[in-house]
């Protein structure tokens, strides 16, 4: 019975040529050669690379290796077959041997056990060889097959920096976002790193960067030389330092006293053509030495901003302010606010908590706080009880303050759309006073003339004062003003998520308090609305959410659920009367017209 021997090449594909030859040879072979196997292409390459050296071939047949004991078991002389030429290698001598062998016998190239090769291309399977060398060659063969599938030697595909978002663009008009002021980066996304904004090219920035590196190396070398000098407190300057001082003095003495007419015309033309989109021309304004110091400081600041951006602390180009420094707090923002681009690109703003002016750095804020005379919001103080005060601010009289307040509120509100058109609104700002001033707790705004009787247009509690009862105080104060105006009020829609939670909690508390004090048998939604100044629609929706409104025999009934009232009374007793609005502390009359 003929046995079909399966074989595979070194790259894992079946050798179709060898398989066809084997099928032709199996008809003429006897059963004595059933344990023989054919060579793989990897073993052929290995035999040709030996070039006459004694080789022990590890031949695999159905997963079994032929050992010396198996080779000695066969004493018969097997017929020799010439090896076919491999696709990957072969010398002229091997080609001649293959051609001569093909003329002598055209039988398929098979090497049975005990075969004696007739040339250096034939493998002597029956030659005496050690077990260790056989195992070594088998290991080399397996390593070569594994290396064929190993792609680690291939060059990796070039990737751009992971932090680069190529949807972002530099805000400078006409800039393609290539290059960087520091000369160390391939792209930029902000004015601080834009070469075009600074009237430079990307190549000039790279040249300046190399010059700065050389100067830094020279400075480091000179410092090392000065380390040998004994350091004392009143040490005299070295000769190198004296020479450098004389050089700087000479450079500063050479600067021009003023600009000539041609230079002035050039500067004016530059300003008229580019405006604020480019940095003014700085040449001849000061000495070359001082100008170079200024350029170095710009490059260093741009490099620091780039490091912060890569670290995620600054979001240049995305116009998203991540944090604000507000008084003694550093607050994480929630939403985007349309601050000017030059401030929004920094990622962090510094604000005066009294006048709400926003600044770029801690130094500017410190200088501002030393000069700022505001200690409370502008406008009239209409409510004070303890350390809690409420100021009424007219958007028409204090436009800048109200605009800054709206920009600040947008950082924590999603649905707010009012930023700059503040004149038709009144702002009621709640503060908490201490020995340093009145600190902003929250605010709400309302239209001066609302046709839908909205008593709140926008309401906000600052994050550092949330979950302390100030939100309900602001809502209660807005309804107190509606009671004084003898109107029924309701907040303007849509409400934010936190605003909806706060208002539903307030309406629930108002209704339970009213039902607890109510002693009659029949109750009217209209009477509740007139006494609490809450819109009837809001009252009905709250009763439905509490499952206190039922329809029975053609009538709507209000169920007085004593369990809810008892729970509310227990919470009121536990909470106390600390965060409540006292109507007697209000000193206010409704404004007349606009």
Primary descriptors:
594 residues; alpha+beta; five-stranded antiparallel beta sheet; four-stranded mixed beta sheet; disordered N terminus
Model description:
The chain is of the alpha+beta class and 594 residues long. The chain is built from 17 helices and 15 strands. The strands form five sheets. The chain has a five-stranded antiparallel sheet, with helices on both faces. A four-stranded mixed sheet has the order 4-3-5-6. A two-stranded antiparallel sheet has the order 1-2. Strand 5 and strand 6 (358-359) form a beta hairpin. Helix 13 (470-485) crosses helix 14 (497-517) and helix 14 packs across helix 16 (536-545). The termini are far apart. InterPro entries: Acyl_CoA_acyltransferase (IPR016181), HAT_MYST-type (IPR002717), MYST_HAT (IPR050603), WH-like_DNA-bd_sf (IPR036388), Zf-MYST (IPR040706), Znf_C2H2C (IPR002515), Znf_C2H2C_sf (IPR036060).
Q: How does the helix and strand content classify structurally?
A: alpha+beta
The multimeric state of the shown protein is: single chain
Strand content: 5-15%
Across the major sheet, the strand order is 7-8-9-10-12
The whole-number mean of residue pLDDT values reads 74
């Amino acid at each position: 019975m003929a046995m079909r021997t399966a074989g595979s090449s070194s790259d894992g594909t079946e050798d179709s040529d060898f398989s066809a030859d084997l099928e032709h040879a199996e008809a003429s072979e006897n059963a004595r050669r059933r344990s023989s196997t054919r060579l793989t292409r990897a073993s052929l390459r290995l035999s040709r690379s030996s070039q006459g050296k004694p080789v022990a071939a590890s031949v695999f047949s159905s997963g079994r290796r032929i050992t010396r004991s198996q080779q000695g078991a066969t004493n018969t002389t097997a017929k020799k077959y010439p090896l076919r030429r491999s696709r990957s290698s072969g010398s002229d001598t091997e080609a001649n041997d293959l051609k001569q062998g093909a003329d002598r016998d055209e039988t398929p190239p098979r090497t049975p056990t005990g075969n004696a090769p007739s040339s250096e291309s034939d493998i002597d399977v029956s030659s005496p060889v050690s077990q260790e060398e056989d195992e070594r060659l088998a290991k080399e063969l397996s390593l070569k097959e594994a290396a064929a599938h190993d792609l680690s030697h291939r060059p990796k595909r070039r990737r751009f920096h992971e932090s680069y978002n190529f949807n972002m663009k530099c805000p400078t008009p006409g800039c393609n976002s290539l290059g960087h002021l520091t000369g160390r980066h391939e792209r930029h996304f902000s004015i601080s790193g834009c070469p075009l904004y600074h009237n430079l090219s990307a190549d000039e920035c790279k040249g300046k960067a190399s010059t700065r590196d050389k100067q830094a190396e020279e400075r480091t070398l000179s410092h090392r030389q000065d380390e040998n000098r004994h350091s004392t407190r009143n040490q005299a300057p070295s000769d190198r330092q004296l020479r450098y001082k004389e050089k700087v003095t000479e450079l500063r003495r050479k600067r021009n006293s003023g600009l000539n007419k041609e230079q002035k015309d050039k500067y004016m033309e530059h300003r008229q053509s580019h405006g604020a989109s480019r940095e003014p021309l700085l040449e001849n304004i000061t000495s070359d030495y001082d100008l170079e110091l200024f350029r170095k400081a710009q490059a260093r600041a741009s490099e620091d901003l780039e490091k912060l951006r890569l670290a995620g602390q600054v979001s240049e180009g995305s116009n998203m302010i991540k944090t604000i420094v507000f008084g003694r707090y550093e607050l994480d923002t929630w939403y985007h606010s349309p601050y000017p681009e030059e401030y929004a690109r920094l990622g962090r703003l510094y604000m005066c908590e009294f006048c709400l002016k926003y600044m770029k750095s801690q130094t500017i804020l410190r200088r501002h706080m030393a000069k700022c005379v505001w200690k409370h919001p502008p406008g009239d103080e209409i409510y004070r009880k303890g350390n809690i005060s409420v100021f009424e601010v007219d958007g028409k009289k204090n436009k800048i303050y109200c605009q800054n307040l709206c920009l600040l509120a947008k950082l924590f509100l999603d649905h707010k759309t009012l930023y700059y058109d503040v004149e038709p609104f009144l702002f009621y700002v709640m503060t908490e006073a201490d020995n340093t001033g009145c600190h902003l707790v929250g605010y709400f705004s309302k239209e001066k003339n609302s046709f839908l009787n909205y008593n709140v247009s926008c309401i906000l509690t600052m994050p550092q004062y949330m979950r302390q009862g100030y939100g309900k105080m602001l809502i209660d104060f807005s309804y107190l003003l509606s009671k004084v105006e003898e109107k029924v009020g309701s907040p303007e829609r849509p409400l934010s998520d936190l605003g909806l939670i706060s208002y539903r909690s307030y309406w629930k508390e108002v209704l339970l308090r009213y039902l607890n004090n109510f002693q009659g048998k029949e109750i009217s939604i209209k009477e509740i609305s007139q006494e609490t100044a809450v819109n009837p629609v809001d009252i009905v929706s709250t009763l439905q959410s509490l499952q206190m409104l039922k329809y029975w025999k053609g009538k709507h009934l209000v169920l007085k659920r004593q369990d809810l009232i008892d729970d509310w009374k227990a919470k009121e007793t536990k909470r106390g009367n600390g965060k409540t609005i006292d109507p007697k502390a209000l000193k206010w009359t409704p404004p007349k017209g606009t």
